[in-house]
Amino acid sequence: MKAVSVEEAVAMIPAGASVMVGGFMGVGTPERLLDEVVRQRKTGLTLISNDAATPGKGVGKLFDQALVSKLTATHIGLNPKAQQQMLANQIAVDLVPQGTFVERIRAGGCGLGGVLTPTGVGTLVAEGKRQIEVDGKPFLLETALRAQFALVHAFLADYLGNLAYALTSRNFNPVMAMAADTVIVTAEHIVPVGVIAPDHVVTPAPLVDYLITNG
Amino acid sequence: MDPQIIIARRVAKELRSGNLVNLGIGIPTLVANYVPSDLKVFFQSENGLIGTGPIPEQGMAHPTLTDAGGRPISALPGASTFDSAMSFGLIRGGHVDVTVLGGLQVDAHGHLANWMIPGKMVPGMGGAMDLVTGAKRVIVAMQHAAKGKSKIVAKCSLPLTSARPVNLVVTDMAVIGFPDGKATLLETAPGLSVGEVVALTEAELAIPDDVPEMRI
After folding, report:
1. Which of A43, A63, A139, B10 is least surrounded by Cβ atoms within 10 Å, i.e. has the fewest?
2. pTM
3. pLDDT tens-digit profile of A51-65?
4. Which residue out of B46, B187, B202, B213 is catalytically annotated?
5. What residues contact residue B182 under an 8 Å CB cut-off, 6+ apart?
6. Strand partners, B168
7. CA-based nearest residue in chain A for residue B88
8. What is the CATH number of the domain that holds A174?
């Protein structure tokens, strides 16, 4: 793990990059990283995020500035700007059931080719997908999902990069921290090694590439 | 009584002590208000919490304690938090005893459509498809009709949420179940006759000999 400024970290992300962003309706989202992505105007992003949050909050800021060209998400109904951009074909949107979304990312981070899920069988979600029977039950083959960058927000990070999360801000963060080539983390508090007890570490330090420094 | 409250009160009667329950947004959220205090029900919020409590008092909200709509909530003693893979493992894996969801249409075989209106409303399915596919019991809580049109239809014209039929539909007019895969009128709302419910329902309803009045 390397500690870097938010400017340095975001400078590593090229325009058009694929980026996973943790958070659920803007809760547990690395806001400082997103503010800097907006400031450096990283355009044409492929965004993988549970939702589009709301304008001005979380990944909603990326839609305010029209920085997203492709989106994989589970629900964008609470962000009218993302909806408008989708209906105007400015962004290509792939809507995925939430349990499938997280399992595809988990598969991507765990070296699996994909997962078999019953969710979506017999619905529009099944279109174009392979259906596989196991013990007489139908499942969809949903392929793994990875990104070049994961932007993750933790409650605690220690000097080595061990992470712990708070309440419902955990959501997709630990799963995404497994599934990208480069993992960049912001934390509410940076604390000495040992403050997070081994049993309370959720994301182990070797998964974290960059920790954003305070200030 | 307000139609939404009739629905919420009746659905609350379906919950049992020890149940793990997931409530969708809208009318389903109201169900928590009508669960008797001696019933120990665990409510899950799919963004990663079991043991959701009421909206915190003014000034007591915490930015990392929210429901699936991002609104502040509280957590009851004994609550637990987890990531989204665990949360949907609980849902898809059959560990959730009851889910209560809103609906746009339910058809004569119990199929639910509740996630999109093509060309009009495409918000995304969020967790709905996993909930309907994986929960042990699926209850739909919705108004019987919208703009005078029955939402209990012969066949869903809107895209389905799951191939798995729901177990029970509770509306402001009736309780409908699907024994043998066929819509069956189980109860009528106070003051409504069987004939009135049938007249306001597009789907053909099987009518048992005894159709009691909904007790709320």
Report:
1. A43
2. 0.97
3. 999 999 999 999 999
4. B46
5. B108, B109, B206
6. B139, B177
7. A99
8. 3.40.1080.10
